[in-house]
Amino acid sequence: MPIRDPNGPERWRATFAAWRRSCLSALAFMLAFPLARACPMNDSWVFTVLISLGVAFLLVFALPFFVTRSGDQWLLNASGIGMSGLRVPWMPVAGHWQWKDVAGYRLSEQEVGGVVYEVLEVGLADGVILKAALSGRAKREAVEAFLSERGVQALETLR
User: Fold this and answer.
1) What contacts 107, CB < 8 A, 6 or more positions away?
2) Where are the domains of the chain?
3) From CA 108, how far away is CA 123, in angstroms rounded?
4) Is the pLDDT of residue 1 over 50?
5) Which pLDDT tens digit goes with each residue over 110-125?
6) How many C-beta neighbours within 10 Å does residue 40 have?
7) Angle between helices 8-37 and 45-57 (to 10 degrees)
8) Are strands 73-77 and 80-88 parallel, antiparallel or unpaired?
9) Quick one: pLDDT band at residue 2, thresholds 50, 70, 90?
10) Bigger pLDDT: 118 or 36?
11) Which of 88, 109, 119, 154 could disulfide-link to 64, CB 3.0 to 4.6 Å?
12) What CA–CA distances, in Å, run from 36 to 51, 99, 122?
């Protein structure tokens, strides 16, 4: 029986991410190069290459960095819980769970970096736990009332 590397999947995942980012960089450079060269005031190849490298860097590294700093948004509505957000521009994250799939919820306070957040944890029937901080506009009492109207039980602990 062969010996398996315990870090194997993570190593391949990191290798694939680096390869994908390299390919996207090359593609962004190839797309930006003709556009930079087409500028009538640009007569220098060095300037064209610098502009193309800058555009490629912005598209592949800077834009995903800033987009991933934004949080996902949850929507509690009559049909269930919806989630949408952007992890990276080319991979939107979305999900929807119906109320029949929700096993229970828990509201608690958690401290992160010296700031206390009101946190909603939702346990699904398949064992997955969704966790989100409530914004200042979402009041604890309103969330509890909304979830109890939908038949979702408040639980002390989620498993």
Assistant:
1) 118, 119, 120, 121, 140, 143, 144, 154
2) 8-67, 73-149
3) 14
4) no
5) 888 888 888 888 888 8
6) 5
7) 140
8) antiparallel
9) very low
10) 118
11) 88
12) 6, 52, 50
Q: Name the least confident of 6-10, 63-67, 82-86.
A: 6-10
The number of angstroms, rounded, from the C-alpha of 13 to the middle of its chain's C-alpha atoms is 17
Sheet holding 91-98, edge to edge: 73-77, 80-88, 91-98
Contacts by residues 93-102 (CB-CB < 8 Å, ≥ 24 positions apart): 97/122, 97/124, 97/130, 99/150, 99/151, 99/152, 101/125, 101/126, 102/150, 102/152
Amino acid sitting at position 105:
Y
Looking at residue 25, what is its pLDDT? 81
Average pLDDT, the chain: 77
Q: Which of 113, 152, 148 is nearest to 133 (CA)?
A: 113
Encode burial over 129-152: b for 16+ CB neighbours within 10 A, e otherwise: ebebebeeeeeeeebeeebeebeb
Q: Is 119:132 a contact under the CB 8 Å cutoff?
A: yes
Tokens (6 digits) for 68 = 């991933």
